[in-house]
Specification:
Length: 122
C-alpha cells in the first residue's frame, strides 16, 4: 500500500515581493533556469534589480521559454539587452550585460502578479 506524506511545516527560503506596475531604472543581474510547466516546458528567469526610488533593491523579473528567435519572449528579451535584432546562429555572452543599466517596463500578468515586459538601455 502506498503511503502519502503530508507536509505539516515548510520553511520559506526567500520572500518575493512583486514590483508594482510601472517604469523603473534597473540593473541587469542574471538569467537563471526556472521551473517551467508541463504545458510550456523549461523556463528562464531574467532578473533585474531596481536601482532608484521606493522599490530600490527589489527584484523585477521576466519568465520566458528557452528558445531564442525573433518571435519568442526569450529572443525579444535578448534583443532588447543587446539593443539590436538577433542574428541567426549568433552566440551571445550574457555576462557582458551583467551590471548594465536598463529602463524596465513592468506590467501586470493574467495571474495578478507583475513581470518585466521590456527593457531598454539607459
Amino acid at each position: 500500500m502506498n503511503q502519502t506524506k503530508s507536509l505539516s511545516q515548510v520553511v520559506v527560503e526567500e520572500s518575493f515581493e512583486s514590483v508594482p506596475v510601472g517604469g523603473y531604472r534597473t540593473k541587469f543581474l542574471r538569467v537563471e533556469e526556472a521551473e517551467g510547466s508541463p504545458q510550456y516546458g523549461p523556463a528562464l528567469r531574467w532578473c533585474f534589480e531596481v536601482t532608484d526610488g521606493p522599490m530600490a533593491g527589489k527584484l523585477a523579473t521576466a519568465l520566458t521559454g528557452t528558445k531564442f528567435t525573433s518571435k519568442t519572449n526569450a529572443g525579444k528579451m535578448l534583443s532588447q539587452l543587446q539593443g539590436k535584432p538577433l542574428e541567426k546562429g549568433q552566440t551571445v555572452d550574457l555576462s557582458q550585460y551583467v551590471g548594465q543599466v536598463f529602463a524596465a517596463n513592468v506590467i501586470a500578468t493574467e495571474s495578478g502578479s507583475t513581470k518585466v515586459d521590456s527593457v531598454f538601455r539607459v
